[in-house]
Design brief:
Keywords: Cell membrane, Membrane, Transmembrane, Transmembrane helix, Transport. Helices cover about 75% and strands about 0% of the residues. The protein is mainly α and about 300 residues long.
Length: about 300
C-alpha cells in the first residue's frame, strides 16, 4: 500500500511539474509573439503612413493625420522627381551604388577565396588587419578621407598645371564609389571567408583533376556554391551604400547629389513651402528600391545566414 501511495504521489508531482512547464512555455511563447507583433507594427505603421501621405494633397495634411487620402494625387511624385531633381539624384545613387558593389565584389570574392582556402606566410597578418578594420566606424574617418582627396587634387593640379577651380578627385562619383567599396571590404571579406571555410574541398579537387585553374575553379565552383553568402553581402552593402549620407555630403560638395543628400534638401524646401505631399513622395522614392530588393532576395538572404555548407 505504501508503494502504491508513493507512486501516486510521485505521479501527481511529476504531472504538476509538467503542467507548470507547459504553462510557463506558453507564457514565454505568448510574450515572444507579442514582442514580434509590436516590433512589426512599429515598422509597418510608419511605412504605411508615409506611403499613404505621399498620395495626399497638401490641403489634406491640415485635417486628421490618420485620414485616408481622398484620391491618388500623383503630382506629388512629379514635383519630387522632376521639379526637385529627385530623378537626377536617383540616377546618381544607382550609378554610385552599382559601381561600388561591382568594385567590392571583384576585390572581396578573390581575396576571401585566397584567405580561406590557401596557406601562406603573411596570411595571419592580413586576416588580423581585416579583422581590425571591422572596429573602425567609417563616420569617424570621413575628415581624413576628405583631406587625403583634397591633397591628391592639389598634387594633380600642380603636376599637370590645371586650373585651381577644377577638381579631379573631389566631386567625383567614381571616387565616392571607390571609398564606399574600400570601407566595406573588411566586413565583406570577413563574412565571405567564414562562409567559404565551411565548403568541402572535394569540389575543388574534382575541378583540379578536370584541369581547371584556380581562377576557373573560383568562377565555376566557388562562386556558385557561395551564392547565398554573396547575395547576403549584396543586400547588406546595397542598403549601406544606398542610404549613406555623411560621406556623400562630404565628397560631393558642389556637384549633383546622391538620393539621401537630395532628400534632405527636398525636405527643407518642401517644409518651407508646406508641400508635405512632395516631401513624403521623396521618402517613398528612396524606400521603393530597398523594399523591392529585399522581397526579391529574401529567401536567398535566409539561406546565406543559416546555411554554412557541408563540413568536411
Amino acid at each position: 500500500m505504501q508503494n502504491v501511495t508513493e507512486k501516486q504521489i510521485n505521479y501527481k508531482e511529476s504531472t504538476i511539474k509538467r503542467n507548470k512547464k507547459k504553462s510557463s512555455s506558453k507564457l514565454m511563447k505568448a510574450f515572444i509573439y507579442l514582442c514580434l507583433i509590436l516590433f512589426t507594427l512599429s515598422i509597418l505603421i510608419p511605412l504605411g503612413w508615409s506611403i499613404l501621405a505621399s498620395f495626399k494633397h497638401k490641403s489634406e495634411f491640415y485635417g486628421s493625420p490618420w485620414a485616408l487620402p481622398k484620391g491618388f494625387y500623383l503630382e506629388n511624385f512629379t514635383n519630387a522627381f522632376i521639379k526637385s531633381h529627385m530623378g537626377e539624384y536617383f540616377l546618381n545613387s544607382v550609378f554610385v551604388t552599382a559601381l561600388a558593389l561591382i568594385i567590392l565584389l571583384v576585390i572581396a570574392i578573390p581575396a576571401a577565396y585566397v584567405l580561406s582556402r590557401f596557406n601562406f606566410k603573411s596570411k595571419k597578418i592580413i586576416n588580423t588587419l581585416f579583422a581590425a578594420g571591422l572596429f573602425i566606424n567609417v563616420n569617424y574617418i570621413v575628415v581624413p578621407i576628405f583631406l587625403l582627396i583634397l591633397d591628391a587634387d592639389k598634387a594633380i593640379k600642380q603636376i599637370f598645371a590645371l586650373p585651381l577651380a577644377m577638381t579631379v578627385f573631389l566631386d567625383n562619383k567614381i571616387v565616392l564609389a571607390l571609398v564606399y567599396a574600400s570601407t566595406a571590404l573588411p566586413f565583406t571579406i570577413y563574412l565571405l571567408s567564414n562562409y567559404l571555410r565551411t565548403l568541402p574541398r572535394a569540389y575543388e579537387e574534382a575541378a583540379t583533376i578536370d584541369g581547371c585553374t584556380y581562377f576557373q575553379t573560383l568562377i565555376k565552383v566557388i562562386i556558385p556554391m557561395a551564392k547565398p553568402s554573396i547575395i547576403t553581402v549584396i543586400l547588406f552593402q546595397f542598403l549601406a551604400f544606398w542610404n549613406e549620407y555623411i560621406i556623400a555630403l562630404t565628397l560631393l560638395p558642389n556637384s549633383s547629389k546622391t538620393l539621401p543628400v537630395g532628400l534632405l534638401n527636398l525636405m527643407q524646401v518642401q517644409k518651407a513651402a508646406t508641400d508635405y505631399g512632395a516631401m513624403y513622395a521623396g521618402l517613398v522614392i528612396v524606400m521603393i528600391p530597398t523594399i523591392i530588393l529585399y522581397i526579391l532576395v529574401q529567401k536567398q538572404l535566409t539561406e546565406g545566414m543559416t546555411v554554412g555548407g557541408i563540413k568536411e
